Input
Amino acid sequence: MSETPVGLELSELAKRLQSGTLSDTTSQRATEATPDLAILPWANVIKIGGQSIMDRGRKAVRPVVDEIVANLPKHKMILGTGAGTRARHVYSLAIDLGLPVGVLTVLGTAVAWQNAQMLQYLLAAHGIAFLEPEGFPSLAHYLMERGAVICQGMPPYKLWEQNPEIGRIPPQRTDTGCFLMAEVLGARKMIYVKDEDGLFTADPKKDAHATHIPRISVQDLLQRDFDDLIVERAVLQLMLNARNLKEIQFVNGLKPGQLSAALDGRPVGTIIFNATRGGAA
Output
């Protein structure tokens, strides 16, 4: 008896995948032929820093909220939240108790969720909803109706988070979660709102001689191997294989207007681009 229904002709790719294993490199290369669909190419993913913005309270959060509201008429925004200082506290307790990385990820996710809910209440008057990953099928609807939607930034790995090469801190946290969401949706922009003017050669809070880097390729940045970075290292590794996102941008949320400038396509803060995936040098 034939395994293929009568009248259904399998493509060459389907034949390869059915007859071989999914680990076969020849079959994997064959899947490159079809380009990835940009599901929401007009959406902008904006990650609101936990420690850098949310933990600073009203003086930092309200101006960012006002800037988000001002951009609702012209930009569609998916707002992800970081975890911040409270996550660092719970990580230290969990590590002291000997808990594994997956459990730390669950705890960190809970803190990012709290920040997302606070942001949602601040934007509730504008009809901006908070969605967990389970509600993402409705994400496009909320964007079209209200112009923005909120999510917590942690990727939903939780207990399934991989162990890092060094130490016990979950390697893929809220920077990574927002990047992965922007990549899979084919978003227009991935913007990180921090409390600094972007990437520096060292931490500018600790080193007065740190130099600002307005634009750099991810390949060059990885080669420099700075001790301190403005973004999770996992994001830089993911950028190398990203198919939709060719660059990411960092702005200072403590300086009103920088987020708006980035949304409008102006080169503020720092832009990290992929030199081998079509990013402009």
The first helix runs from residue 12 to 19. The mean pLDDT is 92.
